[in-house]
Structure formats: structure tokens, C-alpha cells
Design a protein that fits this description.
The complex is a heterodimer of chains A (639) and B (209).
Chain A lengths: L18 E4 L5 E3 L5 H10 L16 H8 L21 H26 L19 H52 L1 E5 L2 E5 L14 E6 L16 E4 L7 E7 L24 H28 L7 E3 L2 E4 L7 E8 L17 H21 L16 H4 L8 H7 L5 H28 L4 E6 L8 E8 L11 E6 L4 E5 L4 E4 L3 H27 L2 E6 L14 E6 L6 E7 L3 E9 L21 E6 L10 H12 L4
Antiparallel strand pairs in A: 1-2, 3-4, 4-5, 5-6, 7-10, 8-9, 9-10, 11-12, 12-13, 13-14, 14-15, 16-17, 17-18, 18-19, 19-20
Helix pairs in contact in A: 6-9, 9-10, 10-11
Chain B lengths: L17 E11 L3 H11 L6 E12 L7 E8 L7 E9 L9 E10 L3 H8 L2 E15 L2 E11 L8 E3 L3 E11 L5 H11 L17
The chains are: A alpha+beta (639), B mainly beta (209).
């Protein structure tokens, strides 16, 4: 139908309500629809109660109908419609009512007939006279029976209760196991294999590559006697750890100095258990520690065998022995004690607490954990995702065409053993330096030596500032200040005047150096004192080439002249030869005056003449500079 | 210029012949969170690693029937990382009891001029896609959960359209030839993921059109 205009079709729904009337203006008034109750009444009216199942009742319908029906049927009775709609919801109701009506009608008829007394008479029923009195025995028997049934009921209930209580207790023990298991699971890795519960106490998920499986098994503690009282630390859960991880272990580091007393015998105290930790926790932690110690020791011994060093490391069973310095032996041993043997290890001497060993052991653990962490760092994860695992920078080696040297520099070049030996060397060097300085300080009183150790150190480097001063003259004589940087094998000394000296690990070198600095300090002190006192410095040399040769360092010398020029003091100080002080007098004060024709004028007698040595040990004064000050004061006449 | 003949020599990457063991599965988008949680618990303790990669598949059609396939992949989230070129051989037809798909694998890191180089060599790009998702590792095993997206305009990786409403889960291990114990570990790991995702070996040749 493509052609032609569209035809408009209007649709109107049929009228559902009947029109009652149409007003003059066209509005229609509808018959209001029937409400629910009205509708129900209309339907009920249609039911013909006269059409029942029995047809002979139809005769009696007349009068009893309105009497019996007022209550159940509120609507009018006379309208019986011939047309019967579906009787099904009302059928049973109608039939019941009809039968009730029938009974009532019969009763009514009988009563009305009996009232007449003509055709029917009522006869009372004779009763048994003996049924009135009930004998005592019978009552007793009946009471006993009823009590018996009641008692049986109560007993059955009680039995059920007691059974449930016993079950509850059993359940509680079971639930204890489950709650313990929950607590165990919150701290350790567990998995179910078949009907066994296994756990993992190794460090593999934290990055370790140690091949030990580290599996433990969780068992239910069933050897408990219900009658006995439960012990305090009863735990329904027990763990079984692999037999080679039993007991406790630690890594013992010993560094006995040859020529030095005392090895330290350490035995490990059992760790204090925190209140509330379960036995399984303690056991598992100890086993994990043993595993870590084993891994550390395996790594160390593997490196000890592989790495080539000048002095080879010796690996004997549980011990690695190496010599970081000649004369110093470092031994690292794994001490694994399973509980029973602890008593035999009590040493006769008291254990001397030695900090170094604990620090090194702690550092070993830390380094191992750092190694684990490196295995898991996101640097290893490949981008793009299909590439194999490996360090990010190694992946660049191909595209960037690295050569062998570059690749070598990328890889880890220091193993655990090397690191720990370096740390041990540094610790040893540092303690030796401290000992040297302290022994010098206690031995020599003049000049004084002060050491200020810095708080912030590295594992491989520490530093100390050494000041050499004279007591009472710290502000004047502060020219010797040394900064010592203690490294792994060497000590680097930076002098205040900028000189840098590198000392080896030998103790003697440091001592000699400090002694030579101390002797130089005396001479510097004289120079500074002269400035303060007004004396003129005539000459000064840190290293004089005259006089006896010193075995340690060089002697230094200074010559100062009094303000008026009459006197001069010469000081020569050497580390070994001690100090020598000479005073030059003016010619006029000498006893014998050489008579000579050359000197004509008397003024030449004011020049300085011969010199005399001072008995320095007999001088008054508590230290060198003080004595020097007194001497200078004595030689400066009052104006 | 006609394509050079494709050699039928076995492909090796240097001295060691590496094999890839692979198990694959997939999960719906709704199940992704629970799968990630489970993997986070089962795998090594690391921060979860996400990635966005762009892969191009190159074909070299020779006179013979089977073309030579190379996969070039680069990271969009780490643009300075080198490209990764991968050759995957035919799956090894070993005993049926082996639990994982085993195939020869050659991995090469390449610089950023790889696509031009492959074009010069005669390879033609067959298709490309963008893959993004998460990566986990457990020891030597790598688990990759990724969503693949199709690139609508060739070369434009910003405009992508998801291929499906699910994520692809792959469990793979790279090991030298001859080590068969890895498939046992892979199977036990796949068991632990069981109701969330079923990882099984899917033969790619059986799915060829």
C-alpha cells in the first residue's frame, strides 16, 4: 500500500461500565461497579442450597431453614436461582451445612414427638451403683503408674542432657585443636596433603635457594588422660620437625690473636620465651634458625672452597679457618646442639662477653637475608613479560653489546665470606688502633694524647680524631691534630697541615708515628709559646739533619731569641733521644772573656756568646711547655 | 623479491637448548580478584608486578607449507627495556603422561630497531596485540595473568579493544632440555589453584584453523 494518503484509524476501548444515564450536555453517568462484598453476595445468591446430595430433605426445608441458617448465612434465604454457577468452592460448605441441618431437624422432631408423650417416651439409663466409690488401692496403683511414666520421661531427659554435656567437653577439646590450628596457620605456612597437614618453615618463599625442604608435620596431641588434671602448658597441637633441624644452632666467630690470651667460650642461653607463646612456636622458630645457620654455613664453606685468595681458607667439618692478617686467625664454626648435649658444654671459665663476635654473627644473618631479598626484588621480573627471569641490567648486555669487563662488573663480585672477612679485619684493626692509642695515652703524660671516636661508622670504615696537647696550654699549642680513617687493611692519617700518610695494619707503625708526632708537638709548642711570650723565632725545622739519627721519625729543633736579643734558647727534640735545651748567654756574662785585639768596642760584648745546656730534668714545672715558659720568663729581665 | 627458503634445521639458541613447559587456563573477569589473592598467597612474597606489553607476530612464508613464526614483544610500561624476540618450536610429542606442554624455546633480547630489522630480513607482520595484567613467580615458575586486547589501528597502542571478557592464565617454566621433574612441580601448583582456575596443557596445533 504505497500510494494514497494514510488512513487514520482511531481505536477506542469498549465501555466496561454500564451507562446509567446520559445528561443533556453529553456527560455519561456510569453505574458504579459492585464492591467486593457486593460481588460476593451476588455470587452466593446464585448458589441453590436446595439442590443437595439427598433429595428427601427437600420436604423439611420449610420452617427449620430460617432458624438454623441465620448465623451461618447472613443473606436472604428465599431467592433460589435456577442457574447454578460453579459450585466447587462452596460445595463442601453446602454439604456440611445440609447434614448439620438434617441432624438438627431430626433432633427437633424427636423432641417434639417426645413432648407429646403419646408415641415416644424417654427412659433413663440405669447406672452402675458400684462405679461411684473408687477403692484406695486402685488410687494408689493409678498414682504409682502415673508417677512412673513421669519419672521415666525425666530420666530420659536427664540422660540426654548428660550425654550432651559429655559431648560438649569432647567438642571443646576438639575445638581447642582447631583454634590452635588457626593460630598456627596465622603465623606459618600450612597445606593439606591427603589426610596430613604439612607446613613449610624454610625461607624459600622469602628468596632462599637452599635445597632443604623444611617441611614439618602438624599432629594432634592425643596422649592425654581424661581423668588426670590437664598440665599448665598443655597444647592439643604438636609439630614434628625434620630430625636434622632439631635443637638450636648459632655461628661462632672466634678471632684469637696469636700471642693474646683467651678464646671466648660462648654457649648460647636458651632464648627466653615470651609469656603466651606456644611450645610449637618456640620449636618451629628454633628449627628455622637452625636451617638459616646451616644455609649460611653452607654458603660460606662453598665460597671458601671456590674463591682463590692469597692464604687459602681451611674448611674442616663444621669450621672455616682463615687468616685475614698474618698473626690473626679467624674461625667461623657452626655449633649445633641438640638439647641433651648442653650440659657438657659448660666451660670452666666464665664466659667473657666479647662484642665482636655477636656483631659479626648478626651481620652474617643480615647479609643472608639481604641475599634472599635480592632474589625476590622486582629488578628480576622481566619487562616484557615473556622474557626469562634475570637481572634487569644483564638483559641489556646483548642489545648494548657489553664486553666481558662490563659484564663482569655487573655481576655480584663479593660473596658472603669475603664480606665477613673484610668486616672482621676492620673490627680487628679498629680495636688494635684503640688499644695502641690507649696504651700510649696511659704511658706518656707529657704531651697528652686525646682520641675522639666518631659515632657514625660504616662496617668497613671508622674514624677517630687524635689531638696531642700539653696540659694547661691547649689553646696555644694545638698544631698537632690528626684525623685517622681506619679502613679494612690500612689506616689513613690526615694531618692538620694537609699531609696524608697511609699506615699499614702493623701496630708498631702507628705507635712510631704517634711518638714522632708527640716529639714534634713539643717543638711546635715552643714556637707557639715564643709568639705569646714575645720571643723571636730564629729558626725552626721539623726534620733536622744534624745530631744523632733517630730510629723512629726525625728530630725537630727550634731556636728562639729573647725580646732584647740577649738570650737565645735552642731546643732539639727527638722521639727517641728526648729533648735537649741549650741557652745562649750574652758575651758579657761569661766568666772568662777571651782577650782579643780584634774586638775593640765594648758594645760587642752584648752579643750572644757561648751556650750552655740546661739540666732539663731538674727544671721546675710539671710539663715541658711549663718548664719552657719558666725558662723564658727567667731569661727575660724585668725592665 | 621472493622469500628466501626457510631452513628446516632445528633452531637452537647457543649452547644450551632451552625448553618451555607451559600450562594454560582462563578465568572470567569477576573471578580475577580472588585469583590474584590466591596467587599472592601461594607465590613468592613480592610486591605484585603489573605489566603492559605490545606483541607483534612476524611470519616468514617459505616455499614449504609451514611459515616460520617469530614473536617480538616490547614493554609499554617500561619503554627503555629492550625488545624480546622469541621463537617457539613445535610441542614435543613425548609420552602422554607428561603434564605440561613442552616445546623448544629461544629467547633473545634485542634493541629498539628490531621491527625494521625483521622487515629487512623478509618477515612480514601477521598480527599484533596488547597484553596487560599481572606477573607472579614461585621459584623458577612464572605465572602470568593477562588480558589480551586487539589493536584497531596498526601501530597505535592506545586505541585497543578487549578480545574477551576473561583473563588468560599461564604457568610456565624455562629449563634446559632433559629436566623433566619440573612438570611435577607445575602439576602440584596447578592443583592448588584448582577450583578457581583449571590449568591444563592445550596443544596449539590442535586449535589451528
Amino acid at each position: 500500500m504505497s500510494g494514497g494518503p494514510a488512513v487514520r484509524v482511531s481505536i477506542e476501548s469498549t465501555c466496561e461500565k454500564q451507562v446509567q444515564e446520559v445528561a443533556l450536555d453529553g456527560t455519561e453517568t456510569y453505574v458504579p461497579p459492585l464492591s467486593m462484598s457486593q460481588n460476593l453476595a451476588k455470587l452466593a445468591q446464585r448458589i441453590d442450597f436446595s439442590q443437595g446430595s439427598d433429595s428427601e430433605e427437600e420436604a423439611i426445608e420449610g420452617e427449620p431453614r430460617d432458624r438454623e441458617w441465620t448465623k451461618p448465612e447472613p443473606e436472604e434465604e428465599e431467592g433460589t436461582v435456577k442457574f447454578q454457577p460453579s459450585l466447587w468452592p462452596w460445595d463442601s460448605v453446602r454439604n456440611n451445612l445440609r447434614s448439620a441441618l438434617t441432624e438438627m431437624c431430626v433432633l427437633h422432631d424427636v423432641l417434639s414427638v417426645v413432648k407429646e408423650k403419646k408415641y415416644m417416651a424417654l427412659d433413663p439409663v440405669s447406672q452402675d451403683p458400684t462405679a461411684g466409690k473408687t477403692p484406695q488401692v486402685f488410687q494408689l496403683i493409678s498414682k504409682k503408674k502415673s508417677l512412673g511414666t513421669a519419672a521415666q520421661l525425666l530420666l530420659k531427659g536427664a540422660e540426654k542432657l548428660s550425654k550432651s554435656v559429655a559431648e560438649n567437653q569432647e567438642n571443646r577439646r576438639q575445638r581447642d585443636f582447631n583454634s590452635e590450628l588457626l593460630r598456627l596457620r596465622s603465623q606459618w605456612k600450612l597445606r593439606k596433603v591427603g589426610d596430613k597437614i604439612l607446613g613449610d618453615l624454610s625461607y624459600r618463599s622469602a628468596g632462599s635457594l637452599f635445597p632443604h625442604h623444611g617441611t614439618f608435620e602438624v599432629l594432634k596431641n592425643t596422649d592425654i588422660d581424661l581423668d588426670k588434671k590437664l598440665p599448665e602448658d598443655y597444647c592439643p597441637l604438636d609439630v614434628q620437625i625434620p630430625s636434622d633441624l632439631d635443637g638450636s644452632a648459632y655461628i661462632k666467630k672466634q678471632a684469637p690473636d696469636i700471642g693474646d690470651l683467651g678464646t671466648v667460650a660462648l654457649f648460647r642461653r636458651p632464648p627466653k620465651t615470651k609469656a603466651g607463646t606456644q611450645q610449637w612456636h618456640v620449636k618451629l622458630e628454633a628449627a628455622q634458625n637452625v636451617l638459616l645457620c646451616k644455609e649460611i654455613f653452607a654458603q660460606l664453606s662453598r665460597e671458601a672452597v671456590q674463591i682463590k685468595s692469597q692464604i687459602p681458607h681451611i674448611v674442616v667439618k663444621n669450621q672455616i679457618i682463615s687468616q685475614p692478617f698474618p698473626g690473626l686467625q679467624l674461625s667461623i664454626s657452626l655449633c649445633h646442639s641438640t638439647g641433651e648435649k648442653k650440659t657438657h658444654r659448660a666451660s670452666p671459665e666464665k664466659p667473657k662477653p666479647d662484642d665482636h663476635l655477636y656483631v659479626l654473627e648478626h651481620n652474617l644473618h643480615q647479609m643472608m637475608r639481604e641475599f634472599h631479598k635480592q632474589q625476590l626484588s622486582s629488578v628480576v621480573m622481566p619487562h616484557p613479560a615473556s622474557a626469562p627471569f634475570g637481572h634487569k641490567r644483564m638483559r641489556l648486555a646483548g642489545p648494548m653489546a657489553y664486553d666481558k669487563a662490563e659484564i663482569f662488573s655487573l655481576q655480584h663480585n663479593e660473596g658472603l665470606l669475603e664480606k665477613i672477612i673484610k668486616q672482621a679485619k676492620h673490627i680487628f684493626l679498629r680495636s688494635r688502633t684503640a688499644r695502641t692509642i690507649d696504651s700510649l695515652a696511659s704511658r706518656i703524660e707529657d704531651p697528652q694524647i686525646q682520641a675522639h671516636w666518631s659515632n657514625i661508622n660504616d662496617v668497613y670504615e671508622s674514624s677517630v680524631k687524635v689531638l696531642i696537647t700539653s696540659q694547661g696550654y691547649e689553646q696555644i699549642c694545638k698544631s698537632i691534630q690528626l684525623q685517622l680513617n681506619i679502613g679494612v687493611e690500612q689506616i689513613r692519617v690526615v694531618h692538620r697541615d694537609g699531609r696524608v700518610v697511609t699506615l699499614s695494619h702493623q701496630e708498631q707503625e702507628l705507635q712510631d708515628f704517634l711518638l714522632s708526632q708527640m716529639s714534634q708537638h713539643q717543638v711546635h709548642a715552643v714556637q707557639q709559646l715564643a709568639k705569646v711570650m714575645g720571643w723571636h723565632v730564629l729558626s725552626f725545622s721539623n726534620h733536622v739533619g744534624l745530631g744523632p739519627v733517630e730510629s723512629i721519625g726525625n728530630a725537630s729543633a727550634v731556636t728562639v731569641a729573647s725580646p732584647n736579643g740577649e738570650y737565645a734558647i735552642s731546643v732539639r727534640n727527638g722521639p727517641e733521644s728526648g729533648c735537649k735545651v741549650l741557652v745562649q748567654f750574652p758575651r758579657s756574662q761569661t766568666k772568662e772573656l777571651p782577650k782579643s785585639d780584634v774586638i775593640q768596642d765594648a758594645k760587642w760584648s752584648h752579643l750572644r756568646g757561648p751556650s750552655k745546656e740546661v739540666h732539663w730534668s731538674r727544671m721546675e714545672g710539671r710539663n715541658f711547655v711549663y718548664k719552657m715558659e719558666l725558662l723564658m720568663a727567667a731569661l727575660t729581665p724585668c725592665p | 623479491m621472493e622469500a628466501p627458503p626457510v631452513s628446516v634445521m632445528p633452531v637452537t639458541g647457543g649452547a644450551v637448548n632451552m625448553m618451555e613447559y607451559l600450562l594454560q587456563g582462563s578465568v572470567y573477569d569477576q573471578a580475577l580478584e580472588s585469583l590474584l589473592h590466591r596467587l599472592r598467597g601461594l607465590c613468592d612474597n613480592m610486591e605484585p608486578e603489573t605489566f603492559i606489553d605490545h606483541e607483534l607476530v612476524y611470519l616468514l612464508k617459505g616455499q614449504q607449507g609451514n611459515p616460520f613464526i617469530l614473536r617480538a614483544r616490547r614493554s609499554l610500561s617500561h619503554p627503555t627495556s629492550p625488545w624480546h624476540l622469541r621463537y617457539l618450536g613445535q610441542p614435543e610429542v613425548g609420552d602422554k603422561s607428561r603434564h605440561a606442554l613442552v616445546r623448544n624455546c629461544v629467547d633473545v633480547a634485542a634493541s629498539h630497531s628490531l621491527p625494521e630489522f625483521l622487515n629487512e630480513m623478509g618477515f612480514r607482520m601477521d598480527h599484533e596485540f596488547v597484553s596487560n595484567g599481572h606477573m607472579f613467580r614461585k621459584g623458577a615458575m612464572k605465572i602470568v595473568v593477562s588480558k589480551l586486547s586487539r589493536i584497531l589501528v596498526p601501530g597505535n597502542t592506545d586505541n585497543t579493544e578487549r578480545l574477551s571478557l576473561s583473563y588468560l592464565v599461564e604457568l610456565s617454566v624455562l629449563a634446559p632440555a632433559g629436566q623433566d621433574n619440573m612438570s611435577e612441580d607445575m602439576r602440584s601448583f596447578a592443583e592448588q589453584l584448582k577450583p578457581l582456575v583449571h590449568l591444563e596443557k592445550i596443544d596449539p596445533s590442535k586449535q589451528r584453523h
